[in-house]
Amino acid sequence: MKLTLKASLALAFGLTAGLANAATELVIATVNNGHMIEMQKLTKHFEQANPDIKVKWVTLEEGVLRQRVTTDIATKGGQFDIMTIGMYEAPIWGKKGWLQELKTDAAYDADDLLPAIRSGLSVDGKLFAAPFYGESSMLMYRKDLADKAGVKVADKPTWTDIKDLAAKIHDPKNGVYGICLRGKPGWGDNMAFLSTLVNTFGGQWFDMSWKPQLESKPWKDAINFYVDLLKNYGPPGSSANSFNEILALTNAGKCGMWIDATIAASFVSDPKQSKVADQMAFAQAPTMNTPKGANWLWSWNLAIPAGSKKVDAAQKFITWATSKDYIQLVAKTNGWANVPTGTRKSTYASPEFQKAARFAAAEKAAIDSANPTDSTLPKSPYIGVQFAAIPEFQAIGIAVGQQMSAALAGKTSVDAALKTSQQAAEREMKKAGYYK
Protein backbone atom coordinates (compact mmCIF):
# COMPACT_ATOMS: atom_id res chain seq x y z
CA MET A 1 0.00 0.00 0.00
CA LYS A 2 2.79 2.41 0.96
CA LEU A 3 4.65 1.60 -2.24
CA THR A 4 1.50 2.22 -4.26
CA LEU A 5 0.95 5.54 -2.50
CA LYS A 6 4.59 6.53 -3.07
CA ALA A 7 4.36 5.46 -6.68
CA SER A 8 1.14 7.43 -7.10
CA LEU A 9 2.68 10.51 -5.51
CA ALA A 10 5.78 10.16 -7.66
CA LEU A 11 3.64 9.80 -10.75
CA ALA A 12 1.51 12.82 -9.80
CA PHE A 13 4.61 14.86 -9.05
CA GLY A 14 6.14 13.78 -12.35
CA LEU A 15 3.02 14.76 -14.26
CA THR A 16 2.88 18.13 -12.51
CA ALA A 17 6.54 18.75 -13.24
CA GLY A 18 5.97 17.67 -16.79
CA LEU A 19 3.08 20.10 -17.18
CA ALA A 20 5.14 22.89 -15.65
CA ASN A 21 7.98 22.12 -18.01
CA ALA A 22 5.57 21.99 -20.92
CA ALA A 23 4.33 25.55 -20.32
CA THR A 24 4.95 27.65 -23.42
CA GLU A 25 7.11 30.71 -22.75
CA LEU A 26 6.31 33.72 -24.91
CA VAL A 27 9.10 36.29 -25.17
CA ILE A 28 7.61 39.68 -26.02
CA ALA A 29 9.66 42.71 -27.05
CA THR A 30 7.96 46.00 -26.25
CA VAL A 31 8.49 49.73 -25.78
CA ASN A 32 8.88 51.44 -22.40
CA ASN A 33 5.82 53.65 -22.43
CA GLY A 34 2.93 53.88 -19.99
CA HIS A 35 0.36 51.73 -21.80
CA MET A 36 2.83 48.92 -22.45
CA ILE A 37 4.04 48.92 -18.85
CA GLU A 38 0.41 48.70 -17.73
CA MET A 39 -0.10 45.71 -20.06
CA GLN A 40 2.76 43.94 -18.30
CA LYS A 41 1.07 44.47 -14.91
CA LEU A 42 -2.19 43.06 -16.24
CA THR A 43 -0.60 40.02 -17.92
CA LYS A 44 -1.29 37.98 -14.76
CA HIS A 45 -4.97 37.90 -15.86
CA PHE A 46 -3.95 36.32 -19.16
CA GLU A 47 -1.67 33.79 -17.45
CA GLN A 48 -4.41 32.83 -14.98
CA ALA A 49 -6.78 32.16 -17.89
CA ASN A 50 -4.02 30.35 -19.83
CA PRO A 51 -1.93 28.44 -17.23
CA ASP A 52 -0.04 26.66 -20.01
CA ILE A 53 1.46 29.97 -21.24
CA LYS A 54 4.06 32.09 -19.42
CA VAL A 55 4.97 35.56 -20.61
CA LYS A 56 8.47 37.02 -20.48
CA TRP A 57 8.89 40.72 -21.25
CA VAL A 58 11.84 42.47 -22.86
CA THR A 59 11.16 46.20 -22.39
CA LEU A 60 13.28 48.63 -24.39
CA GLU A 61 13.57 52.34 -25.19
CA GLU A 62 11.90 53.12 -28.54
CA GLY A 63 15.05 53.49 -30.65
CA VAL A 64 16.66 50.36 -29.17
CA LEU A 65 13.43 48.36 -29.66
CA ARG A 66 13.28 49.26 -33.35
CA GLN A 67 16.92 48.28 -33.82
CA ARG A 68 16.58 44.95 -31.97
CA VAL A 69 13.37 43.75 -33.64
CA THR A 70 14.51 44.86 -37.11
CA THR A 71 17.78 42.93 -36.75
CA ASP A 72 16.01 39.89 -35.30
CA ILE A 73 13.37 39.62 -37.99
CA ALA A 74 15.75 40.34 -40.89
CA THR A 75 18.24 37.70 -39.70
CA LYS A 76 15.51 35.26 -38.57
CA GLY A 77 17.15 35.32 -35.15
CA GLY A 78 14.06 33.99 -33.35
CA GLN A 79 14.69 35.93 -30.11
CA PHE A 80 11.09 37.11 -29.87
CA ASP A 81 7.75 35.34 -30.21
CA ILE A 82 5.82 38.61 -30.31
CA MET A 83 7.20 41.97 -31.37
CA THR A 84 5.90 45.45 -30.74
CA ILE A 85 6.21 47.17 -34.11
CA GLY A 86 4.94 50.38 -35.65
CA MET A 87 2.71 51.23 -38.57
CA TYR A 88 5.86 51.80 -40.64
CA GLU A 89 7.16 48.25 -40.29
CA ALA A 90 3.86 46.32 -40.42
CA PRO A 91 3.00 46.72 -44.15
CA ILE A 92 6.64 46.48 -45.31
CA TRP A 93 7.36 43.34 -43.30
CA GLY A 94 3.96 41.83 -44.10
CA LYS A 95 4.61 42.27 -47.82
CA LYS A 96 8.07 40.68 -47.47
CA GLY A 97 6.53 37.63 -45.78
CA TRP A 98 8.31 38.34 -42.49
CA LEU A 99 5.13 38.33 -40.38
CA GLN A 100 2.40 35.78 -39.68
CA GLU A 101 -1.03 36.83 -40.88
CA LEU A 102 -3.25 37.35 -37.82
CA LYS A 103 -6.34 35.16 -37.73
CA THR A 104 -9.13 36.63 -35.62
CA ASP A 105 -12.53 35.18 -34.71
CA ALA A 106 -15.97 36.78 -34.57
CA ALA A 107 -15.61 37.62 -30.87
CA TYR A 108 -12.50 39.69 -31.61
CA ASP A 109 -14.56 41.84 -34.02
CA ALA A 110 -11.90 43.12 -36.43
CA ASP A 111 -14.57 45.36 -38.01
CA ASP A 112 -14.57 47.34 -34.76
CA LEU A 113 -10.98 48.49 -35.45
CA LEU A 114 -10.78 52.08 -36.71
CA PRO A 115 -10.57 51.92 -40.54
CA ALA A 116 -7.47 54.16 -40.85
CA ILE A 117 -5.55 52.04 -38.33
CA ARG A 118 -6.68 48.67 -39.72
CA SER A 119 -5.82 49.74 -43.25
CA GLY A 120 -2.33 50.83 -42.19
CA LEU A 121 -1.61 47.37 -40.74
CA SER A 122 -2.92 45.35 -43.66
CA VAL A 123 -1.54 44.18 -47.00
CA ASP A 124 -4.03 43.06 -49.66
CA GLY A 125 -6.74 42.95 -47.01
CA LYS A 126 -4.74 40.68 -44.69
CA LEU A 127 -4.03 41.92 -41.14
CA PHE A 128 -0.36 41.46 -40.15
CA ALA A 129 -0.35 43.26 -36.79
CA ALA A 130 -2.99 44.09 -34.19
CA PRO A 131 -3.10 47.63 -32.76
CA PHE A 132 -2.53 47.96 -29.03
CA TYR A 133 -3.04 51.69 -29.23
CA GLY A 134 -3.26 54.14 -32.08
CA GLU A 135 -2.63 57.83 -32.34
CA SER A 136 -2.54 60.89 -34.46
CA SER A 137 -1.02 64.20 -33.40
CA MET A 138 -2.77 67.28 -32.06
CA LEU A 139 -2.32 70.52 -30.15
CA MET A 140 -2.37 70.34 -26.34
CA TYR A 141 -2.29 73.73 -24.62
CA ARG A 142 -2.71 75.55 -21.34
CA LYS A 143 -6.11 77.23 -21.62
CA ASP A 144 -5.42 79.35 -18.52
CA LEU A 145 -2.38 80.92 -20.23
CA ALA A 146 -4.27 81.49 -23.48
CA ASP A 147 -7.16 83.09 -21.55
CA LYS A 148 -4.75 85.32 -19.66
CA ALA A 149 -3.26 86.42 -22.99
CA GLY A 150 -6.78 87.11 -24.31
CA VAL A 151 -6.47 84.49 -27.06
CA LYS A 152 -9.20 82.04 -28.06
CA VAL A 153 -7.53 79.06 -29.70
CA ALA A 154 -9.34 77.87 -32.83
CA ASP A 155 -10.26 74.23 -33.17
CA LYS A 156 -8.14 74.21 -36.36
CA PRO A 157 -5.35 76.73 -35.73
CA THR A 158 -2.65 77.83 -38.16
CA TRP A 159 1.07 77.81 -37.43
CA THR A 160 0.93 81.62 -37.53
CA ASP A 161 -1.66 81.50 -34.71
CA ILE A 162 0.61 79.16 -32.75
CA LYS A 163 3.66 81.40 -33.12
CA ASP A 164 1.66 84.45 -32.01
CA LEU A 165 0.32 82.66 -28.94
CA ALA A 166 3.77 81.25 -28.07
CA ALA A 167 5.16 84.81 -28.06
CA LYS A 168 2.40 85.99 -25.70
CA ILE A 169 2.63 83.19 -23.13
CA HIS A 170 6.41 82.65 -23.14
CA ASP A 171 7.56 83.48 -19.61
CA PRO A 172 10.90 81.77 -18.92
CA LYS A 173 11.54 83.82 -15.76
CA ASN A 174 8.57 82.02 -14.22
CA GLY A 175 9.50 78.66 -15.73
CA VAL A 176 6.92 78.66 -18.55
CA TYR A 177 7.94 78.20 -22.19
CA GLY A 178 5.66 79.23 -25.03
CA ILE A 179 5.93 75.94 -26.88
CA CYS A 180 7.61 72.53 -26.58
CA LEU A 181 8.33 70.35 -29.63
CA ARG A 182 10.45 67.27 -30.32
CA GLY A 183 14.12 67.85 -31.12
CA LYS A 184 15.77 64.50 -30.35
CA PRO A 185 17.04 62.91 -33.57
CA GLY A 186 15.29 59.85 -34.98
CA TRP A 187 13.12 58.89 -37.96
CA GLY A 188 10.24 58.24 -35.55
CA ASP A 189 11.29 61.00 -33.18
CA ASN A 190 11.95 64.58 -34.34
CA MET A 191 11.25 63.53 -37.94
CA ALA A 192 7.74 62.28 -37.08
CA PHE A 193 6.85 65.81 -36.05
CA LEU A 194 8.93 67.59 -38.69
CA SER A 195 7.47 65.54 -41.56
CA THR A 196 3.98 66.78 -40.63
CA LEU A 197 5.28 70.35 -40.41
CA VAL A 198 6.87 70.06 -43.87
CA ASN A 199 3.68 68.46 -45.26
CA THR A 200 1.54 71.37 -44.16
CA PHE A 201 4.07 73.87 -45.54
CA GLY A 202 3.44 72.12 -48.90
CA GLY A 203 6.48 69.81 -48.97
CA GLN A 204 7.15 66.11 -49.45
CA TRP A 205 9.97 63.60 -48.92
CA PHE A 206 10.19 62.41 -52.55
CA ASP A 207 8.69 63.55 -55.84
CA MET A 208 7.02 61.14 -58.27
CA SER A 209 10.46 60.15 -59.64
CA TRP A 210 11.55 59.20 -56.09
CA LYS A 211 13.99 62.14 -55.97
CA PRO A 212 14.47 63.57 -52.44
CA GLN A 213 13.10 67.10 -51.98
CA LEU A 214 15.02 68.21 -48.89
CA GLU A 215 16.34 71.44 -50.40
CA SER A 216 12.95 72.55 -51.72
CA LYS A 217 11.35 75.80 -50.56
CA PRO A 218 8.73 74.10 -48.32
CA TRP A 219 11.47 72.22 -46.44
CA LYS A 220 13.56 75.38 -46.00
CA ASP A 221 10.54 77.43 -44.90
CA ALA A 222 9.32 74.74 -42.47
CA ILE A 223 12.68 74.02 -40.82
CA ASN A 224 13.58 77.72 -40.48
CA PHE A 225 10.17 78.32 -38.91
CA TYR A 226 10.72 75.42 -36.46
CA VAL A 227 14.24 76.46 -35.43
CA ASP A 228 13.20 80.12 -34.91
CA LEU A 229 10.08 79.10 -32.98
CA LEU A 230 11.96 76.92 -30.49
CA LYS A 231 14.94 79.28 -30.26
CA ASN A 232 12.65 82.15 -29.28
CA TYR A 233 9.88 80.43 -27.32
CA GLY A 234 11.02 76.89 -26.47
CA PRO A 235 12.80 75.41 -23.43
CA PRO A 236 16.60 75.28 -23.37
CA GLY A 237 18.07 72.03 -24.68
CA SER A 238 15.15 71.35 -27.05
CA SER A 239 17.42 69.39 -29.39
CA ALA A 240 17.55 66.59 -26.77
CA ASN A 241 13.82 66.52 -26.02
CA SER A 242 11.57 63.67 -27.09
CA PHE A 243 8.10 62.55 -26.01
CA ASN A 244 8.95 61.56 -22.44
CA GLU A 245 11.01 64.70 -21.71
CA ILE A 246 8.28 67.01 -23.01
CA LEU A 247 5.58 65.04 -21.20
CA ALA A 248 7.45 65.65 -17.93
CA LEU A 249 7.81 69.38 -18.72
CA THR A 250 4.12 69.66 -19.66
CA ASN A 251 2.94 67.83 -16.55
CA ALA A 252 5.09 70.17 -14.46
CA GLY A 253 3.28 73.15 -16.02
CA LYS A 254 6.32 74.33 -17.97
CA CYS A 255 4.97 74.05 -21.55
CA GLY A 256 2.35 76.49 -22.76
CA MET A 257 1.72 74.38 -25.86
CA TRP A 258 2.78 71.00 -27.19
CA ILE A 259 2.03 69.42 -30.58
CA ASP A 260 2.57 65.68 -30.33
CA ALA A 261 0.92 62.26 -30.11
CA THR A 262 -2.75 62.24 -29.16
CA ILE A 263 -1.93 59.47 -26.68
CA ALA A 264 -0.29 62.14 -24.48
CA ALA A 265 -3.70 63.68 -23.84
CA SER A 266 -4.66 60.95 -21.38
CA PHE A 267 -1.49 61.66 -19.37
CA VAL A 268 -1.56 65.49 -19.38
CA SER A 269 -5.24 65.53 -18.36
CA ASP A 270 -4.73 63.11 -15.47
CA PRO A 271 -4.57 64.96 -12.12
CA LYS A 272 -2.44 62.15 -10.68
CA GLN A 273 0.25 62.85 -13.28
CA SER A 274 -0.14 66.51 -14.19
CA LYS A 275 -0.06 69.65 -12.04
CA VAL A 276 -2.06 71.47 -14.74
CA ALA A 277 -4.49 68.68 -15.73
CA ASP A 278 -7.56 70.89 -15.25
CA GLN A 279 -6.09 73.62 -17.47
CA MET A 280 -5.22 71.45 -20.47
CA ALA A 281 -7.28 71.90 -23.64
CA PHE A 282 -7.07 70.24 -27.05
CA ALA A 283 -7.32 71.22 -30.73
CA GLN A 284 -6.27 69.89 -34.12
CA ALA A 285 -2.64 70.01 -35.26
CA PRO A 286 -1.82 73.38 -36.86
CA THR A 287 -1.82 73.91 -40.64
CA MET A 288 0.07 76.35 -42.85
CA ASN A 289 -0.29 76.25 -46.66
CA THR A 290 -2.40 73.07 -46.73
CA PRO A 291 -4.23 70.86 -44.20
CA LYS A 292 -2.82 67.74 -45.92
CA GLY A 293 -0.51 65.70 -43.73
CA ALA A 294 -0.72 68.14 -40.82
CA ASN A 295 -1.23 65.37 -38.28
CA TRP A 296 0.44 62.00 -38.30
CA LEU A 297 -1.00 58.50 -38.08
CA TRP A 298 0.69 55.87 -35.96
CA SER A 299 -0.01 52.81 -33.91
CA TRP A 300 2.01 50.50 -31.72
CA ASN A 301 1.08 46.96 -32.63
CA LEU A 302 1.71 43.36 -31.68
CA ALA A 303 2.92 41.04 -34.43
CA ILE A 304 4.25 37.50 -34.80
CA PRO A 305 7.48 36.83 -36.75
CA ALA A 306 6.93 34.44 -39.67
CA GLY A 307 9.33 31.82 -38.33
CA SER A 308 7.72 31.61 -34.87
CA LYS A 309 7.38 28.14 -33.35
CA LYS A 310 4.70 29.37 -30.91
CA VAL A 311 2.10 30.83 -33.25
CA ASP A 312 -1.00 29.54 -31.41
CA ALA A 313 0.11 30.87 -28.03
CA ALA A 314 1.20 34.16 -29.59
CA GLN A 315 -2.15 34.55 -31.37
CA LYS A 316 -3.92 33.95 -28.05
CA PHE A 317 -1.94 36.65 -26.30
CA ILE A 318 -2.34 39.21 -29.09
CA THR A 319 -6.08 38.53 -29.28
CA TRP A 320 -6.34 39.11 -25.51
CA ALA A 321 -4.17 42.24 -25.36
CA THR A 322 -5.90 44.04 -28.25
CA SER A 323 -9.49 42.99 -27.49
CA LYS A 324 -12.55 44.89 -26.29
CA ASP A 325 -12.31 42.85 -23.08
CA TYR A 326 -8.78 44.12 -22.42
CA ILE A 327 -9.98 47.73 -22.75
CA GLN A 328 -12.76 46.92 -20.25
CA LEU A 329 -10.15 45.38 -17.91
CA VAL A 330 -8.02 48.55 -17.97
CA ALA A 331 -11.13 50.69 -17.43
CA LYS A 332 -12.12 48.57 -14.42
CA THR A 333 -8.55 48.59 -13.00
CA ASN A 334 -7.43 52.16 -13.73
CA GLY A 335 -10.49 54.08 -14.93
CA TRP A 336 -11.74 54.93 -18.42
CA ALA A 337 -9.39 57.90 -18.79
CA ASN A 338 -6.43 55.49 -18.86
CA VAL A 339 -7.54 52.94 -21.46
CA PRO A 340 -5.42 52.51 -24.62
CA THR A 341 -7.08 54.62 -27.28
CA GLY A 342 -7.02 55.01 -31.03
CA THR A 343 -7.89 51.43 -31.93
CA ARG A 344 -11.60 50.66 -31.64
CA LYS A 345 -14.85 52.39 -32.56
CA SER A 346 -16.52 50.87 -29.48
CA THR A 347 -14.12 52.73 -27.17
CA TYR A 348 -15.18 56.12 -28.56
CA ALA A 349 -18.85 55.05 -28.50
CA SER A 350 -18.61 54.34 -24.77
CA PRO A 351 -20.39 57.02 -22.68
CA GLU A 352 -18.01 56.26 -19.79
CA PHE A 353 -15.00 56.93 -22.01
CA GLN A 354 -16.48 60.12 -23.45
CA LYS A 355 -17.15 61.40 -19.94
CA ALA A 356 -13.68 60.48 -18.61
CA ALA A 357 -11.65 61.60 -21.64
CA ARG A 358 -12.12 65.29 -22.46
CA PHE A 359 -9.80 64.79 -25.42
CA ALA A 360 -11.79 61.93 -27.03
CA ALA A 361 -13.53 63.95 -29.76
CA ALA A 362 -10.36 65.84 -30.78
CA GLU A 363 -8.33 62.62 -30.81
CA LYS A 364 -10.80 60.70 -32.98
CA ALA A 365 -11.15 63.67 -35.38
CA ALA A 366 -7.36 63.73 -35.79
CA ILE A 367 -7.11 59.97 -36.41
CA ASP A 368 -10.04 59.98 -38.84
CA SER A 369 -8.61 62.90 -40.82
CA ALA A 370 -5.14 61.37 -41.30
CA ASN A 371 -4.77 59.86 -44.76
CA PRO A 372 -1.53 57.94 -45.49
CA THR A 373 -2.38 57.69 -49.20
CA ASP A 374 -2.89 61.44 -49.69
CA SER A 375 -0.73 63.32 -47.21
CA THR A 376 1.14 65.84 -49.37
CA LEU A 377 0.09 68.80 -51.52
CA PRO A 378 2.16 67.70 -54.55
CA LYS A 379 1.50 64.09 -55.54
CA SER A 380 3.89 61.62 -53.85
CA PRO A 381 4.79 58.02 -54.77
CA TYR A 382 4.84 56.77 -51.18
CA ILE A 383 2.30 55.80 -48.52
CA GLY A 384 2.63 57.37 -45.07
CA VAL A 385 2.02 60.69 -43.36
CA GLN A 386 5.12 61.18 -41.17
CA PHE A 387 7.21 58.59 -42.99
CA ALA A 388 7.53 57.01 -46.41
CA ALA A 389 6.71 53.31 -46.19
CA ILE A 390 9.81 52.06 -47.99
CA PRO A 391 12.66 50.07 -46.36
CA GLU A 392 15.20 52.83 -47.16
CA PHE A 393 13.32 55.47 -45.18
CA GLN A 394 14.63 54.32 -41.82
CA ALA A 395 18.28 55.11 -42.69
CA ILE A 396 17.31 58.34 -44.46
CA GLY A 397 15.09 59.49 -41.57
CA ILE A 398 17.85 58.83 -39.03
CA ALA A 399 20.43 60.79 -41.07
CA VAL A 400 18.07 63.73 -41.64
CA GLY A 401 16.95 63.69 -38.00
CA GLN A 402 20.54 64.13 -36.85
CA GLN A 403 21.00 67.11 -39.16
CA MET A 404 17.75 68.76 -38.02
CA SER A 405 18.72 68.29 -34.37
CA ALA A 406 22.14 69.83 -35.08
CA ALA A 407 20.48 72.84 -36.76
CA LEU A 408 18.18 73.27 -33.77
CA ALA A 409 21.17 73.13 -31.41
CA GLY A 410 22.93 75.83 -33.46
CA LYS A 411 25.74 73.48 -34.52
CA THR A 412 25.00 74.05 -38.21
CA SER A 413 22.79 76.28 -40.34
CA VAL A 414 19.42 75.14 -41.65
CA ASP A 415 20.63 75.41 -45.26
CA ALA A 416 23.76 73.37 -44.53
CA ALA A 417 21.75 70.74 -42.61
CA LEU A 418 19.29 70.38 -45.49
CA LYS A 419 22.08 70.16 -48.06
CA THR A 420 23.78 67.34 -46.12
CA SER A 421 20.38 65.66 -45.68
CA GLN A 422 19.66 65.87 -49.42
CA GLN A 423 23.01 64.29 -50.24
CA ALA A 424 22.45 61.45 -47.74
CA ALA A 425 18.94 60.79 -49.09
CA GLU A 426 20.11 60.80 -52.72
CA ARG A 427 22.90 58.37 -51.87
CA GLU A 428 20.47 55.89 -50.25
CA MET A 429 17.88 56.13 -53.02
CA LYS A 430 20.45 55.68 -55.81
CA LYS A 431 22.04 52.76 -53.98
CA ALA A 432 18.63 51.11 -53.71
CA GLY A 433 18.06 51.58 -57.45
CA TYR A 434 15.15 54.04 -57.36
CA TYR A 435 16.94 56.18 -59.98
CA LYS A 436 20.45 56.62 -61.46
UniProtKB/TrEMBL annotation:
Keywords on this record?
Signal
InterPro entries reported in the protein's UniProt record:
Bact_solute-bd_prot1, SBP
Recorded hits in Pfam families, A to Z, give: SBP_bac_1
Q: Where in the cell is it found?
A: Periplasm
Q: Which residues form the signal peptide?
A: 1-22
Recorded hits in CDD domains, A to Z, give: PBP2_TMBP_like
Principal localisation: periplasm
Spell out the PANTHER family in the cross-references. Answer: ARABINOSE-BINDING PROTEIN-RELATED, DIACETYLCHITOBIOSE BINDING PROTEIN DASA
Q: Which family does it belong to?
A: Belongs to the bacterial solute-binding protein 1 family.
Q: What is this protein called?
A: Sorbitol/mannitol transport system substrate-binding protein
Identify the species of origin: Sphaerotilus uruguayifluvii
